[in-house]
Amino acid sequence: MNCPRCHTEISRGKQCANCNFDVELYHKIKMISLRLYNKGLEQAKNRDLTGAISSLIKSIEFDKTNITSRNVLGLVYYEVGQVGQALKQWVISTGFQKEENVAKGYIDQIQNSGRKLEQLNDVVKMFNQGLEYASQGSEDMAVIQLKKAIDVNPNFVEAYSLLGLCYMMQNQSDKGIQYIQKALTIDVNHPKSIRYYKELHPNSVRPEIKEKPAQMIKSKEKKYSRSMQMQGKKHNAFSPMGEILGFLVGSVCTFAVLYILIIPARVDGFKTEIQKLTTTMKEYEGQLIRTNREHEDVQQSLHKENEQLINENEALKQSQAILERVQKVQQASILVQNNKWEDAAILLQNIEVSSLPVDSKSTYEALAQNVYAKVSEQYYKQGITAYNTKKYEEAIVLFEKSWMYEQQANYSDDALYWLGRSYEVREEFEKAKKTYELLLATHPASNQKYNARNRLTRLQ
Q: What values do phi and psi take at 15, rounded to 5?
């Protein structure tokens, strides 16, 4: 097992001997995060989306690199219509792992459509306008805006809940309960919707949800990927900055209308609730601004860490390569001591000499000079024996090896001559001619030059 911090191998004990990292505590934290993820996943399957969000947030608090928890948390946020929060989790997830991360696909599906982003900003504007109208007692106008919002984003739980509250303030409990039950169908433990339901049914502990809880998440995230694609034309989401800008622009555009349409609040008890919702929305806006800044800081930090790791990895690769070459020189020396000259020659030939340290390079040069001369002479003698016994194919291989390892020995010209003769016997005349020409070019004073010229003349 390797240390998660410094990657040093840990053979025993609960701490890393190199950096004192508590490995046992690290694994315990990982397991806690995993258990909370499993709990959140189960809650999501049972449509307890509020509980799922709480569990998944705790999961990533224990392990911020748990991208599976982050991705599912984003999916749950998307399911309840909080697409800004969903994007936040997916952006952070891709910061930890860019390659083979489904979060990148979710982000692309939302951001690559200009029309979709425009619609998402409209949803925010509609909801904020509805909230503003409701806070001023203009429930009729609020209902219009909120219905537009859920037409574009049918899973917007907060919009359903506020719409139900508006109808309750208009004393239209039958209509209000329909929207509250719709919110609870999406999220069975949505706290505001449960509170409003109890206002209408004080003797009921919990509302009965007739619809069977959907299997919201199968195989962790696959179904959400399909759901996002299928509902791409109908559902919408909004970016954090779009939410803020949408609210500001919408507020300015409707400033005059608000003062004309304001009517006195009908239910004092509900007005306090509306004020709380307004305060909550402003807090969300502040959180979104801080989140954007955190995203930028995280991305910059991860980029710097990535560059540093790349540089360190490259330096380690170079050091490892040099170490391997030095070890090969040492191995070749051991092979020579064991009279394994041919193995030593093959090993030395595969070493890149230019990158060797100075002392190892000197050892290599002395070793190579001795080994190459030795094996070249052996191959030459073996080639003569093969030629004399008419094993011409074998002779060709041996003479070529002899020439490859040593080209200036007193037998090197003879090796080329008999190599050419071997080619002639096998009727490989073009190779024979090139071999004789090489002999004359590299050894013009050779005893074999006359023989080589005569053979070359005959072949031409």
A: -125, 155
Residue 22 dihedral angles phi and psi, to the nearest 5°: -80, 95
Domain boundaries, the chain: 23-111, 114-204+236-266
237 in helix, strand or coil? coil
Give the residue-averaged pLDDT of 227-240. Answer: 36
CATH topology of domain 23-111: 1.25.40
69 Cβ partners below 8 Å, 6+ apart? 33, 36, 37, 40, 56, 59, 60, 63
Q: Does the pLDDT value for residue 216 go beyond 60?
A: no
For the segment 175-197, what is each residue's pLDDT rounded down to a tens digit?
778 887 877 888 777 888 788 87
9 to 1, 4, 18, 114: CA distances (angstroms): 6, 10, 9, 50
pLDDT over 80 at 143, yes or no: yes
User: Is the CB of residue 355 less than 8 Å from the CB of residue 321?
Assistant: yes
- The yes-or-no verdict on residue 424 having pLDDT over 80 is yes
Q: Residues with Cβ < 8 Å from 440, sequence gap 6 or more? A: 446, 449, 452, 453, 456
Q: Is the pLDDT of residue 419 over 80?
A: yes
Helix intervals (H) in 98-239 = 102-111, 114-135, 139-152, 157-169, 173-186, 191-200, 222-230
CA–CA separation, 147 vs 164, rounded Å? 11
Task: Read off the tokens for 19.
Answer: 């950096």
Write the DSSP assignment of 241-275 as a string of letters. HHHHHHHHHHHHHTHHHHHHH----S-HHHHHHHH
Crossing angle for the helix pair 157-169 and 268-337, nearest 10 degrees?
170
Report whether CATH 3.90.180.10 matches the domain 114-204+236-266.
no
Do the domains at 23-111 and 114-204+236-266 have one common CATH topology? yes
